[in-house]
Known about the structure:
The structure is a single chain. This protein has helices spanning about 1-20, 35-45, 60-75, 75-85, 110-115, 170-180, 205-215, 220-245, 250-255, 255-260, 265-275, 285-310, 315-320, 330, 340-360, 365-390, 400-420, 445-455, 455-465, 465-490, 505, 510-515, 520-540, 550-570, 585-610, 615-620, 625-630, 635-650, 660-695, 700-740, 745-750, and strands at about 105, 125-135, 160-165, 185, 190-195, 205. It is mainly alpha-helical. The chain folds into three domains: about 40-210, no CATH class; about 275-700, no CATH class; about 710-750. Helix content is about 60%, strand content about 5%. Keywords: Membrane, Signal, Transmembrane, Transmembrane helix. InterPro entries: Acyl_transf_3_dom, Nose-resist-to-fluoxetine_N, O2_lipid_transport_reg. GO terms for molecular function: acyltransferase activity, transferring groups other than amino-acyl groups. Pfam families: Acyl_transf_3, NRF.
Amino acid sequence: MFTAMSTRLLLLVFLVISVFRNVPIINSLESPSLSQNTLDEWWVHRSVPTVSVNSAVSEECIRDTRKYLTALHHHEPWAVQMYESSGRLVENLIHIEGGNNVHHESGLFDGCLSVQSDRVSFKGQYCTVFFGLEPVVEEESLDDIPDSDVENIYYYQKPSVGFCLPSTCTASDLRTAVAQQVGHRVSKGKNFSIVAIASEDYCYTEEKIHNRKTTVDNVTIIVLSAFGLLAVTVFTATGYDVLFNTNEQKTADSSFFVQLLQCFSAKRNCKTLLETTENSKDDLSCLHGIRVLAICWIVLIHVGGGFALTRFIYNRKMVFENTIHWQGQFVSNGLFAVDTFFLLSGLLVAFTQMRQLDQNGGFFNIKRFYGHRYMRLTPVYAFVLAFVATLYPYLGSGPEWNFIEQKSKDIRKNWWTNLLYITNYVQPTKNWWTNPAVGAAETWYLSSDMQMFWISPLLIYPLWRWKRAGILCAVASWLIFLAISTTLFVVYDLPATNFWLRPSDMLKINAYAEKHYMNTFARFPTYIIGILLGWLLHKTKDKKIRINKCLVVAGWMMAILSGLTVTYGMLPYLDENIVPVINPVVRISYGVLHHSAWALAVGWIIFACTHGCGGFVQRFLSCKLFLPFSRLSYAVYLLHLHYIFAYVAHMRKPVYFTDCIAFTTYLGALVFTFIMAFVVSVFVEMPFANLDKLLFPNKTKAQLQTQKTHTHTWNANCFVFLKEKWISIYNKLIGPLKREGGGSAALYIFC
Length: 751
């Protein structure tokens, strides 16, 4: 009993001493006797910075702040709610340069917005203030420091406080008032002013949110009309399909209009998506399992990044430190997972095109080759872009919802670069990697993949026509692109990968993204490996290959070793305190070769599973349950980041990130994204894929020749028919005139 009371007494004394150490800012607290009223006033000043009459804020803001404080002293419910909804500005907790602990004091967003009273004219307004450090060169007033623009994602990692203030106070009023309460820091022998950063974009009122959600411009109306027309078409086609119980044979025998309508039938498209029997005769079923696992991995990485790279977790320092351990490398160093899709893309393009070349006798249908690709990818891509550009900001609200609105505005401005698939080179928005305003950060992959697809015939056709020359050309191209990447690493001193814990490498992260990560030349080696693998699978698809067991074991061992090296190869170099400088040979070799190494590892898995050397891995990856999810992978890729961003921006409070929370959040994001992908695929992706097949069916060279012959015969028959008709008209009308001496030489010659 005595021990417990002693412990409580010590804790109370420690708390009082801690409070005393933080109160020198208020002059009245410097007196030896500290009254309870003075302590209360100090806490009020921490939550209501505009209370100071010395602040150069607007008179209206000061007047309403005084009304608010008067009501608070009388314990009026609305004022108490307003006070409880505000964060606290504790100066000594603000992050200083060189530290890892960042202070975030968020208030109650919804509680603040719901504050209103008949006794006052203002309402509650929730504003977030960020804090930065600026070196002090000479004496200057903090009031003269301008607001900072949002230029990179680290803006969201700055210390911040969410205040609940009267709606008559502006962001400028708040910034000025806060700036006078914070002081300076000494770091590395230099003085730094603590700069308050506030913007109207991060000040929210109930009225402002309502106006944003009810204001609809012409572009939004057009997009809504298009979506409505699409929905009506889908429901009409589905109703027709259900009422008349049509099937594929009936549809094929129907009129063109009925076939056109049936392309949008949700019943037909759902059946196609959920079908677990593959129509293809080629045994590449393991690709579906690889595709599903790869997209799940990418969603996991982006869920982790969505939380860790913003200020929505209290323990970001601990999360970052955990990435130094080998368990965290699967996520923190897993961005090479996208190389799996580059490999699969090159493989399937080469495999399918070579099969068509065999069927067409070497005839390469260029129009169909490029047209089908654009029609396959663009409709659902354009749908997502249109939704984000117009309707995305209307989904919700939150302390960080300006993050969503910035992305919507960026897509409105740069939509054409997305539809032309050039976003990885034409970037109207600067600092693609770290700029939160980039509307569709994931579209760099689609641009790189499309650009490699444009060039792929230069490698695929020589492989099909001239085996040795084609292989030599592909290998030479692979070496050339590796040499280009090596040159860029040397010239720009790029980091080996995206190190989140090495400060010196983080300064080069945008250069790394532009010169390597998004660069098509850096990704082409993986694509070339996919093309060579597709050619090899095409040449061996009808052959039974017997591989020595020792070679099979060696292949699997090399694949596993390569995958582990790529995933965990940089583990010893993560801590810059232990390894200040990475050996240039290690840095460049890993940065240039790890994409190809991963592609070779996955390529061996595909080859082994295709030719019966995969064992339980083959049985797992070829499971039929993967097939429906594989068809949804493209839509999942387009949608998952937007869902993650909306989820994070909607959060009212940061969370303490644990493995359990991480798993449940990831699982929820994955499931919900697949559900959204299913709806988008049924309403958009599948209908336009059906339209592509209906309007531009694949035809072999013989079919094209037959069509040309039929067209020529039809033209000839039409000419004969017209000639006979003209002669008949001539005999009936002109003949009598001719017997009387007249004639019609011109008509006779024409016929």
